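DATA SHEET
Item: assembly model
Revision: 1
Owner: S.N.
Input lines:
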Amino acid sequence: MEKALINKNEGSNWRELKNKLFFGLVIVLSGITIMPILLIVYKLLSKGLRQINLDFFFKVAPDTLQAMSAVQSGEIIPGGIANGITGTLLMVAVASLIAIPVSILIGIFLYENPGKKYASLIRNLTDILQGVPSVVLGLIAYFWIVKGVTNGFSALAGSVALSIMMLPLIIRSTEETMKMIPVSIKEAGAALGVPYHRIIFKIMIPSGFSGLMTGILLSISRVLGETAPLMLTTLGNRAINFNITKPTSAVPLQIWEFYNNPNMIDLVWSSSLFLVGFVLTLNIIAKRISTKYS
Amino acid sequence: MKSEKITKLVLVIASVVILLIFAGMAYSMIKGAIPAFKEFGLFRFILSTEWDPTEGKESYGAMPFIAGTVITSLLALIICFPLAFSTSLFIAEYFRKTKIATVLSTLVDLLAGVPSIVYGLWGFYTLRPLIAELGYAGQGYGIFTSGLILAIMIIPYATSISNEIISMVPNELKEAAYSLGATRMEVIFSVILPNARSGLVAGYILALGRALGETMAVTMLIGNANIIPKGLFSPGNTMASVIANQFGEADGIKLSALIAIGLLLFAVTAIVNFIGKIIIRKYA
């Protein structure tokens, strides 16, 4: 009797120990998981902060010679990434103009036809579109716009690639947002004889505004850092350019150029810091909006 | 009444945009890929391991890149699994709804916001020298380095789905197991895992879909050798990275071969994502 009890205790001790060891393992592995983001942010801050000044935002990228002589005399590299910032803003703005209206309409369409076969086909295709690698979308935009419309690398081609990336994100977030709006509000409008398009514009979109905004901001923050599709479509530009049919620079494209040029290495970190800061700020704003209103 | 019909029509027309995009994508890519398929034959193109741009005897095959993509992505998945699963247990089980769980999940979410090219930079300047010091990989380029950076990049996708699935496991089931004297670890392995299995699998399949198509970070770390990787530390190339790398100087049959690789990549990621979504939808 006594012996059996002791055995049982030993067994449960071992189980307790295993339990504790596993808990320890979970803590350690979770710690390892968050290391990279901390290390990346640290690296960007420690290497990139030095180069960030007013010129960084308002001057275009220096040429190799300027950068080389600055590095040799131990100064910070002159110039900045104004051509990239303006290019990124231009392309994201055009992409948003293309993607936002159409994807909100598609999202409402999916919400209005939940069970229909055609709608579920569209929903599945949207899901697949979300998984298409961005470099493939770059190829597509190359065919459609670079070869077909602008006869050369252009900001428009980049915008089209980015807008196809934004579509599925906004469509799905629109559909999810619409599902959260109480049906009674819609029905109240319909009972008063409000026409259908006014129900959409005056009731559904305004009451789901924060959800739509979150989806839009997240989709913008997704495409801001895209490099591969822009390499195939917009090429880059040394000067500030607002003509959407001409080659244009973008911040991620500039990072790629600086990376490939040993003299510009210092600029790599500051432009990356700027890009990550920009993307993460948008992300945080989007999450704030969604938690504030839901 | 009439305006309602018009509005509905507008919505349907908007939805046709998705069909048009797909039809246009398929048309353009197949049209662009046909010269390569004709020149080398569809199956020979897929299976050939040769990538020789020498003029006059050009020969292009996709196998080195298919192999590179599959190996780096699977490696990423293997590295990602223990990390993402532990993090999900931390967030959705051990420290559920506490402040520290919120902090952790915010940090993991931030990983999803870092652009691919910044991962590439960090990998190049921080990870690559560390791996070079191990002594297996020369300068530190190769399959392992790429797999490692991919693993970090897909962690947020894997954890966010795992978190949801794990927190969906009914409390009654867990409490029943505790009341029988089960330890927390036993609850995790005999209650949570069996209940969440298919959802977790779907989450990792979707994360795999991400890894297959990642371009910039891999391009900067894999070493860009157009060969079937010979080992874990061998250089290679993936389908996405070879497009990014060689598109600029490509024309004629080489351009067509790159587009054909893009088409294959599109097909593979579409299938993988579709399987993942189907499992998730069945589960929900």
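QC remark: The longest strand of chain B covers residues 51-52.
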